[in-house]
Amino acid sequence: MSSSQTTTTNGVVVITHVYPDGNGMGVAGVASTPHCLGQTVFSVLGSFRAGHPKALGTVQIMIGLMMLLTGIVMATAPWLDNIGVASGIFVWGSIIYVVAGSLTVAADNKLNKCLVKGSLGMNVVATVTALTGIILHSLDSAGIMLYCDNPYYFCQQYWVRSQGISGVLAVFSLLEFIVSICVSSFACRAVCLCCHSTPESMVCCTGYT
């Protein structure tokens, strides 16, 4: 038959249950309640906020919007000789960045295991997308596919403008890559700590008021 033991340490009451096994030896288990479990999970997920996800998520949204607008401007050029524009990454990549940033901000506002996992998944996708964007925009900045059949003076102006914008997009992609990795690392740590926190390993303490 189980028995309870109560100990007091520095004004904190710790309640433990002792369960006897077949050999008559007592095995101590820590009492836990759903309220305590919820508080512990919330505390573990709180480590996600250490990385300032709201600020990082806002940066992701701004990067996505700026890259979308810049890509639209480049898409209106008279010659479609830009790999980044031809691939459409300025559209679907920007959507991924905005969604990842929105989930990150939502996970910070309403700390929830599902939202943190969603933020982690989308930021992993955003990391891969940003790496792809870095490669494509770097190739465009190097002038791999530039073509122009106008007089050299006009072509030179077009080339400089196109390569400059591609360089800016490459910098934006690099920034998104760094931000996504940062968010992913904090989200991964919070989710892993939460998953490894079992009721058996949690201590429910009640302090005196």
Automatic annotation (TrEMBL):
Q: Which coarse location class describes where this protein primarily resides?
A: membrane
Any one Pfam family here would be CD20
The record's subcellular locations are: Membrane
State the UniProt keywords alphabetically. Membrane, Transmembrane, Transmembrane helix
Mind telling me which residue stretches traverse the membrane in this protein?
A: 55-77, 83-107, 119-139, 159-179
Q: How does it sit in the membrane?
A: Multi-pass membrane protein
The superkingdom listed in its UniProt entry is Eukaryota
Q: Which family does it belong to?
A: Belongs to the MS4A family.
Protein's recorded name: Membrane-spanning 4-domains subfamily A member 4A isoform X2
Q: What organism does this protein naturally occur in?
A: Salmo salar
Q: What would be the name of the gene that encodes this protein? A: LOC106600905
